[in-house]
Design goal:
The complex is a heterodimer of chains A (about 260) and B (about 325). Chain A is of the alpha/beta class and about 260 residues long. Chain A has a single domain, classed as Rossmann fold (3-Layer(aba) Sandwich), CATH 3.40.50.300. In chain A, the strands form two sheets. Chain A has a six-stranded mixed β-sheet, with helices on both faces. Chain A has a three-stranded antiparallel β-sheet with strand order 2-1-4. In chain A, helix 7 runs parallel beside helix 8. The longest helix of chain A is centred in the last third of the chain and has 16 residues. Chain B is about 80% helix and about 0% strand. Chain B has one domain: ABC transporter involved in vitamin B12 uptake, BtuC (Orthogonal Bundle), CATH 1.10.3470. Chain B contains 14 helices and no strands. The longest helix of chain B is centred in the last third of the chain and has 40 residues. Chain B has about 325 residues and is mainly alpha-helical. The chains are: A alpha/beta (about 260), B mainly alpha (about 325). Chains A and B meet through helix 5 of A and helix 9 and helix 10 of B.
Chain lengths: ~260, ~325
């Protein structure tokens, strides 16, 4: 009895809990038996080599890909019941940036879920979109056509769109891929701000050097989860090297014992 | 050639039959425009072509079925139902090939387009060789026969056009999200597959309704050219949809009116030619993306650059 209660309460503490997740493309498993969980209020990185299935795991959590097996719980419940609490920042290249919409139009899309059928984008949605643009430092670009944006500005636009969703669990797919330093700093600042407000973020991340500095939780993935936990105990030379198939040799300072060394 | 008086009479739709034909072409153009704009934006222009070509075996099969059941095979609703069925089947096959193999969209559409059309041509030939079969009229689905449209055709066409035009008005927000970022739409909880199917269904409706007027070979031009032309003039989706409807309607009006003046020239072809003149004009003079404005912008930038260079030199 008491055991059941304990396990439930830990379930509720996890913002995201993935159990035994297996996903396949055309009958080839991409990830198998993936198990991990992320406690509330963490900035979590998902790290692994190319083709490790990081985006696949993200998309399977969001029910964009069919799973062969497995269970995903968001704040203890199914995704489709917690949809309003989840925001998604896809990879930049996933859309056509030549599409005839303005930056504000794109950001307002974050509110389409709560607007519902037939209702038009109204003044309060536009106000929310403008505020989100302000938070990512893009106010000046609200009326620009999106094809005029740089890579970093595209990324900020997507981030603003996610903010408009008013979620408390954020999935970000490579938000730092090919963006300028200023954008990287701005995005990080925003993610820290979200964490301070109690939100949880799962970020697919490539730059190993910045992991200890940016994230307080790490999921190491290479077709399966090799480790999952607080950065200082999971992000060690041994485990990372194992994740990358033992092919990488890291200098010591990379994994400084205090975790802050880069 | 012809008198101005006659030209004026036709363009102002004074004659009943001309009025019928021209209004049909206008409605068809107005409804095809926005559907084509969505196709262009989603880079699925060929899908419209595959769909229209895949209607031919349906027309032939519907004719055969009707003859077999004892009719004369000339029931228009039946022929159009057949057309819609194989048209949708064609799209389904494209999607099946794309999803289940490593063959990409364009190749899948090319395969479906040619195979279905080939099958249709063979079936038409077979019908022609039947002792009882008078397939006269079936070929009109290939190139269209606007001039011989009757009132019933007009009602079918205007009904279809109204239904199709209501989608971008009622579902503007939903379709914009679907076309821009379908995965994100799915995460927000929108039934992406159903919206996609709805667009496909509306496309089928307007293509099948337009078969009679411009024929299955040229309907793709009616779909894609106005949408592609509109893109040169605006960076906003609502304006692009409206413009494409206007371009389509205008091409339909002028093309059909011209063909009423010169009855030997097929209307479908004239409509397409008018539309392509519009495309050429948009291509060069479009306000947002035309070649001319791009040239001006580049020159403006270069001049600014020169001015800066001058400053540097003088210092």
């Amino acid at each position: 009895m008491s055991e059941a209660i304990t396990s439930r309460s830990t379930d509720q503490e996890a913002a995201l809990k993935v159990q035994n997740l297996t996903v396949a493309y055309q009958s080839n498993p991409v990830v198998r038996g993936v198990d991990f969980s992320i406690p509330k209020g963490r900035l979590a990185a998902m790290v692994g080599p190319n083709g490790a299935g990081k985006s696949t795991v993200l998309k399977a959590c969001l029910e964009l890909l069919p799973r062969l097996s497995g269970d995903v719980r968001i704040h203890g419940d199914l995704f489709r019941k917690q949809r309003r609490r989840v925001a998604y920042v896809p990879q930049r290249e996933s859309v056509d940036w030549d599409f005839p919409v303005s930056v504000l139009d794109v950001v307002a899309m974050g509110a389409y879920g709560r607007l519902g059928w037939f209702r038009r984008v109204n003044r309060s949605v536009k106000a929310a979109a403008a505020e989100a643009l302000e938070r990512v430092g893009m106010s000046a670009y609200a009326d620009r056509q999106i094809s005029q944006l740089s890579g970093g500005q595209q990324q900020r636009t997507f981030l603003a769109r996610a903010l408009v969703q008013e979620a408390d669990l954020f999935f970000l797919d490579e938000p730092f891929a090919a963006v300028d330093v200023a954008t990287e700093q701005a995005v990080m600042e925003l993610l820290r701000d979200l964490r301070a407000r109690g939100a949880t973020c799962l970020v697919v991340h490539h730059d190993l050097a910045t992991v200890p500095q940016y994230f307080d939780w790490v999921v190491l993935l290479n077709e399966q989860v090799l480790a999952n936990g607080p950065t200082e105990s999971v992000f060690t030379a041994d485990k990372v090297s194992q994740t990358y198939g033992g092919k990488l040799v890291f200098s010591r300072k990379f994994f400084g014992s205090d975790g802050s060394d880069v | 050639m012809f008198e101005w008086q006659e030209l004026l009479e036709v363009l102002s739709l004074r004659d009943y039959n001309t009025r019928l034909v021209v209004s049909s072409a206008v409605l068809l153009g107005a409804a095809c425009g926005p559907m084509g704009a969505y196709l262009v934006l989603r880079r699925r222009s060929l899908m419209g072509d595959a769909l229209s070509h895949a209607t031919l075996p349906g027309v032939a099969l519907a004719f055969l079925a009707s003859v077999w059941l004892g009719g004369d095979g000339k029931s228009l609703p039946l022929l159009l139902c057949g057309a819609a069925l194989t048209g949708l089947l064609g799209c389904g096959v494209v999607q099946f090939i794309r999803d289940r193999t490593r063959i990409k969209d364009d190749a899948a559409m090319g395969i479906v387009l040619s195979v279905f059309f080939g099958l249709g041509v063979v079936l038409l030939g077979f019908i022609q060789s039947m002792p009882k079969g008078s397939a006269a009229g079936l070929e009109s689905f290939i190139y269209g026969k606007t001039a011989s449209m009757v009132q019933n055709d007009f009602f079918v066409l205007s009904g279809s056009a109204l239904v199709v035009l209501s989608a971008p008005v009622l579902l503007f927000k939903e379709l914009r999200l679907l076309c821009f970022d379908g995965e994100y739409a799915a995460v927000l909880g929108w039934p992406v597959k159903r919206l996609d199917a709805l667009l496909m269904l509306l496309l089928t409706v307007i293509v099948v309704a337009g078969l009679q007027a411009v024929g299955l070979v040229l309907i793709i031009a009616f779909l894609v050219i106005p949408g592609a032309s509109a893109r040169f003039w605006t960076e906003r989706l609502d304006q692009m949809l409206l413009l494409s409807a206007l371009f389509g309607a205008f091409s339909g009006w002028l093309g059909a009116a011209l063909s009423a003046l010169a009855p030997r020239l097929p209307p479908g072809a004239l409509i397409v030619l008018v539309a392509s003149v519009g495309f050429a004009l948009s291509f060069f003079f479009g306000r947002e993306r035309g070649l001319f404005i791009q040239f001006l912008r580049r020159r403006f930038l270069m001049q600014q650059g020169d001015a800066k260079d001058d400053l540097v030199c003088h210092r």
